[in-house]
Amino acid sequence: MWEKFFPDHYYDSVFEIPYKELRQKNIQALIFDIDNTLAPYNIRRPPEKTSNLLNRLQRMGFKVCLLTNNGRRRLNHFNEHLKLPAYHKGMKPLVGKAKKAMLIMGVSPEATALIGDQILTDIWCGKRLKVTTILVKPISKKDVLSVRLKRGIEKSIVSAYLKKRAEAGE
Ligand SMILES: [Mg+2]
Fold first, then answer.
1. pLDDT at 2
2. 68 alpha carbon to ligand 1 midpoint, in Å?
């Protein structure tokens, strides 16, 4: 019953994603969630390791953009030095802003991957857009209340997903 929420891939963190393989599969654009995907909520600017990753991905030929459900101030601080195409108040799982991002990057859903830590916002948004969806474990256990309420159901979905993956021998 949860299958429509299953991500295409699931990794421990954004640093574990096999980006080279994504390039080989002709993924050209990466849309990243910010909070608890690239940095904990309380870290205003990207850690050096994260900036380095995002720069490296661009050198590899990816178009990279940020899409957060958080507000303008959060995004502006985070993106100040990165200077990536970026969207705040993304309202994921609604697809409007993500579609806009793909339009501006000039990429199709088949050439796009969306990466985030929440199933009911990030992954669901990606599934509706028919892009490649990549779930990562949240960086920090600290969530804002609105997110904490969803974590229970997300846990059930991840368990069902892992069970199916194990059955499929992946
Ligand atoms: Mg998040």
1. 85
2. 7
